[in-house]
């Protein structure tokens, strides 16, 4: 694995706008950054990332039945009692799921280490599935990448196929919802709507704020039509804490992602995985946090947090790092395994699971070991080992 500088395309911004990637720059700072790319060998992709992704996904799925059947585990994951039967029933019915993202620390020199699962509202999807593939094709055509350069990326095709699988099980009408003023979330649901349409599954977009609730407890669109199925790019745990969400269990609404995904998007899953697969090469030691000072060599994370917020690192050398954010409540501790710096950049590998298959990666890099919401997306390629490189890990 190498980080290789490369000349950016002169028209990449125009291309981004043309295809709907309007959040390529956020608050004046680059989000999409193609001034470099990460190069992998095929062996690194297949053996160090793809195979472990499938295995970790299967281990996580293997825990769902145990968790939803245990009041004590649901309590430990801080899932409100009002929603537990609904979550368990969605699993018993095996309500189908669409996708998820596993976040790994990986530098090409050892086993990828799982940081967490983003299995409810994963983002960075469009840029991973579509725009970095477009970058690869353009850079091959320009001669800046070898003609045989490839990419671990069949995300788009997998999404279209998965929507085709879901079509017969989703009650109509299907709507796609996100917060109105989030350009990134709106861009993500626009992309997913297109993937669904390519599979023959058509659904309109709606702002989350425009969803209504009928007198008999069913969710409705702006025309007061009852919504049959809803893809919602909004955290389930936030709905659990909102009065508007209390109608969910009896509403008849089919959600994507399904309610049982709440147990996989919860960081409390990490100590449960470790307890049942202790010593697995792709897992980090983890335990439920009991409070107090964080020992050296550990990281504290809230059960529910996103985009690197409210993370506390106490590294083995005694140094500490902390990120601010809005999240509170119960936490876990995870053994510290800091990201490797590539010339001052810290990449985290997001491995995409669609259905139950690993189908591609996206890389976000930060200027610190904590990957925050300001991290940049950097493309990747599979190249021969003798391709030119300026620096290594």
Note down, in words, how this protein is organized.
With 393 residues, this protein is of the alpha+beta class. 29% of the residues lie in helices and 23% in strands. It has ten helices and 22 strands. A five-stranded antiparallel beta sheet has the order 6-5-18-19-20. A five-stranded antiparallel beta sheet has the order 13-17-14-15-16. The longest helix is centred in the N-terminal third of the chain and has 27 residues. The radius of gyration is 21 Å and the shape is globular. It starts with a strand and ends with a strand. The C terminus is likely disordered. It comes from Luteimonas flava. InterPro entries: GSPS_pre-ATP-grasp-like_dom, PreATP-grasp_dom_sf.
List the helices and strands and how they pair.
Elements: E1 2-5, H1 12-18, E2 25-26, E3 29-30, E4 36-40, H2 42-68, H3 71-76, H4 81-92, E5 99-105, E6 113-118, H5 125-142, H6 155-166, E7 174-178, H7 183-198, E8 204-207, E9 212-213, E10 219-220, E11 229-232, H8 236-240, H9 248-251, E12 254-256, H10 269-276, E13 286-288, E14 298-302, E15 312-314, E16 320-322, E17 331-335, E18 346-354, E19 357-366, E20 376-378, E21 380-382, E22 391-392
Write a compact overview of the structure shown:
Residues 12-382 form the Glutathionylspermidine synthase pre-ATP-grasp-like domain. The chain is an alpha+beta fold.
Helix content: 25-40%
Note poorly predicted spans.
387-393
Specify the overall morphology: globular
Strand line-up in the sheet with most strands: 6-5-18-19-20
Cα distance spanning the termini: 7 Å
Total DSSP helices: 10
Q: For the residues shown, what is the average pLDDT?
A: 95
Structural class: alpha+beta
What is the gyration radius calculated from CA atoms?
Answer: 21 Å
Oligomer state of the chains in this structure:
single chain
Strand content of the residues, in percent? 15-25%
Number of strands: 22
Biggest sheet details: 5 strands, antiparallel
């Amino acid at each position: 694995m190498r980080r290789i500088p490369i000349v950016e395309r002169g028209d990449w911004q125009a291309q981004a706008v043309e295809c709907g990637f309007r959040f390529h720059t956020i608050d004046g700072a680059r989000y999409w950054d193609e001034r470099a790319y990460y190069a992998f060998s095929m062996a690194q992709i297949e053996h160090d990332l793809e195979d472990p992704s499938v295995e970790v996904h299967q281990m996580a799925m293997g825990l769902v039945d145990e968790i939803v059947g245990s009041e004590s585990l649901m309590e430990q994951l801080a899932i409100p009692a009002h929603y537990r039967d609904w979550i368990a029933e969605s699993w018993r019915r095996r309500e189908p799921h669409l996708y998820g993202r596993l976040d790994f620390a990986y530098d090409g020199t050892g086993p990828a280490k799982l940081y967490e699962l983003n299995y409810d509202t994963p983002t960075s999807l469009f840029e991973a599935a579509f725009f970095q593939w477009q970058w690869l094709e353009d850079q091959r055509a320009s001669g800046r990448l070898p003609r045989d350069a490839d990419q671990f990326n069949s995300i788009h095709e997998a999404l279209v196929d998965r929507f085709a699988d879901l079509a017969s099980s989703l009650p109509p009408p299907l709507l796609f919802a996100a917060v109105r003023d989030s350009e990134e979330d709106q861009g993500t649901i626009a992309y997913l709507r297109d993937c669904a349409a390519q599979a023959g599954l058509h659904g309109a977009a709606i702002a989350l704020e425009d969803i209504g609730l009928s007198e008999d407890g069913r969710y409705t669109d702006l025309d007061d039509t009852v919504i049959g199925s809803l893809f919602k790019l909004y955290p389930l745990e936030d709905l659990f804490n909102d009065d508007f969400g209390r109608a969910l269990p009896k509403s008849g609404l089919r959600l994507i992602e399904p309610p049982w995904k709440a147990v996989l998007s919860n960081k409390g899953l990490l100590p449960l995985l470790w307890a049942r697969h202790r010593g697995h090469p792709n897992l980090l030691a983890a335990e439920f946090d009991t409070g107090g000072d964080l020992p050296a060599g550990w990281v504290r994370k809230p059960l529910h947090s996103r985009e690197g917020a409210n993370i506390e690192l106490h590294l083995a050398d005694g140094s500490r790092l902390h990120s601010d954010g809005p999240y509170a409540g119960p936490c876990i501790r995870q053994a510290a395994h800091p990201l490797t710096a590539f010339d001052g950049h810290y990449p985290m590998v997001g491995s995409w699971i669609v259905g139950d298959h690993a189908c591609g990666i996206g890389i976000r890099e930060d200027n610190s070991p904590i990957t925050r919401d300001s991290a940049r997306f950097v493309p990747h390629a599979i190249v021969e080992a003798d391709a030119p490189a300026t620096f290594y890990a």
